[in-house]
Amino acid sequence: MKEGVFSKYFNREEILTFPNLISFARLGCIPWFAWLLVANEDRIYAGLLLGILGVTDWVDGWIARRFNQISELGKILDPTADRLLLIVAVPVLIIDGSVPAWFALAALVRETLVGGAAILLAILGARRIDVTWWGKTSTFAMMWAFPCFLLGESEIFGSEFFTFFAWLSGLPGLIIAWFSAAQYIPLAKRAYKEGQVPKN
Q1: Which of 12, 74, 111, 144 lies 20 to 30 angstroms, CA to CA, from 176?
Q2: C-alpha–C-alpha distance, residues 24 and 14, integer Å
Q3: Does 52 fall in a domain?
Q4: Above 60 in pLDDT, residue 100?
Q5: Any idea what the CATH number is for the domain that residue 135 is in?
Q6: What is the mean pLDDT of residues 65-81?
Q7: Under a CB-based contact definition with an 8 Å cutoff, are residues 43 and 95 in contact?
Q8: Mean pLDDT in the chain?
């Protein structure tokens, strides 16, 4: 039985798709980002890396759809990588002082609640919930806002522009993030009920 479950979700073809490899690379770059900012105190390279990681969030999804490489593993891996990136990056940015604390905490609390709820639902045997369009939109906006905040506090040319763009992307992104979190409540209830239905 264990082999059947493993082969269904984690077979070679499921793992070695290009979008999944991008998601694995994104996960691997999280410690690198933290090292750049905390140990090296390099806001420019840390901000650029964080921005690149944000772009790959869109790229892997586009590749998966364009080349028919959507997988069940990818549906789990991609949002997990996004969430872990934010959960790790946001406290580091708070410590660095490059992001307003209230903004960062609002984003961090949202990600922690949604991530915790997803884990709890999985433990309770609920059906997995696909990421909504609003959820993807908010993640994309926040993935741009945080590196822009960081670059805005650096000595890079045009830092004022980056600060402006951080607010331009971040405020709508934060509002949409909490709106999408509220959307997940009825979806979670439905997923839990469907997960409790006995399977013939």
Answers
A1: 74
A2: 13
A3: yes
A4: yes
A5: 1.20.120
A6: 84
A7: no
A8: 86
Question: Under a CB-based contact definition with an 8 Å cutoff, are residues 127 and 194 in contact?
Answer: yes
Distance of CA 6 to the CA centre of its chain: 25
Q: Report pLDDT for 180.
A: 93
User: Tell me, what's the pLDDT at 106?
Assistant: 96
What span, in angstroms and rounded, lies between the C-alpha atoms of 162 and 148? 5
Q: Is residue 200 part of a domain?
A: no
Provide the CA 53 distance to its chain's centre, in angstroms: 10
- 3-class secondary-structure state, position 34: helix
Residue 83 φ then ψ, to 5°: -65, -45
Q: In terms of C-beta density within 10 A (0-12 exposed, 13-18 middle, 19 or more buried), how is residue 172 classed? A: middle
Which pTM was predicted? 0.81
Chain center to CA of 20: 14
Q: Report yes or no on 68 lying in a domain.
A: yes
DSSP 52-77: HHHHHHHHHHHHHHHTT---HHHHHH
- Provide the number of structural domains found in the chain: 1
Q: Look up the domain containing 79 and give its range.
A: 2-195
What is the distance between the alpha carbons of residues 109 and 93, in angstroms, rounded to a whole number? Answer: 15
